[in-house]
Specification:
The chain has 62 residues and is an all-alpha fold. Helix content is 68%, strand content 0%. It has one domain. The chain has three helices and no strands.
Length: 62
């Protein structure tokens, strides 16, 4: 049961890798950026966003 379009998933994937990379740099906010990146990576991988469901949104066309 997917509620995310392919464009949304690819965008989340790119942002997730950027956040996780930033979390590994010495000047980055390690914990917060890392967790945010892992959340975006997981939602992009499975194609389902719990926030979308809680607000009744979908980026995927029927």
């Amino acid at each position: 049961m997917s509620n995310m379009s392919m464009t949304d998933r690819l965008t989340r994937l790119a942002i997730a890798f950027a956040l996780m990379y930033w979390a590994m740099t010495p000047t980055g906010p390690t914990l917060l950026a890392g967790y945010a990146g892992m959340f975006l990576l997981a939602t992009a991988a499975i194609g389902w966003c719990p926030w979308y469901m809680s607000f009744g949104m979908k980026s995927k066309k029927q």
